[in-house]
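Ticket #4471: complex job returned nothing on first submit. Input attached below:
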Amino acid sequence: MKRRKDLIAGLIFVSPWIVGLALFQAYPFFKSFYYSLTDFNPIRKPVFVGFENYSWLFQDDLFWKSLWNTLFFVIIGVPLDQIVALSLAVGLHGLRREKAMRMLRGIFFFPILVPEVVMALVWMLMLNSEFGIVNQFLKFLGLNPPAWFLSTFWAKPMIVLLRLFFIGTGMVVYLSALNEVPKEVVEASIIDGASPIRRFWKITIPMISPVMLFNFIMDIIGTFQIFTEPFVITKGGPARSTYTLTMFIYNNAFENLDMGYASAAAWLTFAIIFVATIAVLYVTSKRIYYGGER
Amino acid sequence: MRKFILIAAALIFLFPFYWMVVVSFGTPSDFMKVPIRFFPSHLRFKNYVEAVNYIPFLRYFLNTLYISTLVTFGSVISSSFVAYGFSKIKWPGRDVLFLITLGTMMLPPAVTIIPLYMEFKSFGWIGSFKPLWVPALFGSAWAIFMLRQFYMGIPNELVESAKVDGANHFTIWYRIVLPSSKAPLAVVALFQFVYSWKNFFGPLIFLRDQDMYTLPLGLAFFQSRHGGTEWHLLMAAATLTTLPTLLVFILASKYLIEGIRLTSGLK
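Support reply: We reran it on our side without changes. The output follows.
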């Protein structure tokens, strides 16, 4: 009797979420797979075409290009983000003065609260090829700087650099993980005469490895969906060199109104993110330290 | 050495904001001049007056505020209610549903956006603010997760003894749990507000009319539509857009940082 009462009470409390989950997550999730099997624009009814959209995608150079660009952001950007986030956290962790630590932490954290559009616009202005302050400065040094966002070579790396401003979340997570490393272990290794570098690799890194995995996965999932920065700064150019998967989906769905095709691209993107996440979990499964429990 | 690197990094992190403000106070060409001027010659406050007309700033500000406020209140109240059901009542299926809830956080918005668009279109909501705030009334996975973690820490005895006194779950949620979780509710509210304020993808897809744009959308479009961007005005508008987030940061950065730690499962 009590069990039944609890079930009803529980369901009443979570009922708003069940409705939300069904309407705004589950239904669209499955529906988009159905759409991916159809020829469909918003005015016409969807026509079932099987896996045709997928086979078109595999022959679409633009899809491959956007996949390659997105992979560039993930493969170059994610490790770079994590190195910077961890380095800053390690630096802050070692600061003696609490006040200085708090202030610097705040400075590194602040950009994630700022709209990406604002950061992107400022970055665009700073890196303008003619009058941007970066190029003015480089010219002052006697260098001949490239036209960053007009160059198919430089546009991608400059977006990677912009995204380094958004490491605040990861840095905070690393910082609290570093605070959790037991002092006794560190002290014991100092007595044993381990050098700081050795100590970092042999003690700190294994101790914070679960958190590293968490940060890497969150960053991989987020970077696979990169959209706002290239959309605002380059519109995917020059010569589609910053055109990403999410831009491909957006353009096909809301500009070409080819929603079946866009849905297929969305599902492929989802599958790629899923496989990448599983692969990272698998590769690292033997190397992550969970406090002695297996 | 450590201090030197940290300070250098901090200067790099601050510079874009510094430059944004400098350009916003300069003449239309101050920032292009050689040699570089790191300070504006004099503070042209009239840039700000022009900027709020250059883009319909007040309008976009009110639009963004309207959406963000509804999202914040809606999602905090509903998520707290739902989180109670995930933490203080034991019922079969609860943990499975909670896992599914966590799973939805991994789902890329690009996958659901097309059917959502069609769904909202059939409701007649495209071009209105509704697609941006109504879903928040049903809870947000992230907020539910955060609040549930906190409620798990509230002693069950408190709930049990209230029950003995004849209180039902609703009264317990309203009279005991809500008042004792003001701090986590504030953290969740701040994050919901900031993310809604920053949101670009949602407004880009669902809004039609230029009068209804949010600030991020308005800024992005103004830049791309006018060939010769008036950078000093755009930077003034960008500075004004950043101010509310700066305010949130100054008032509450401690709680925000605490909130991120909780999300990652650390104490």
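The first strand of chain A starts at residue 38 and ends at 39. Closing as resolved unless it happens again.
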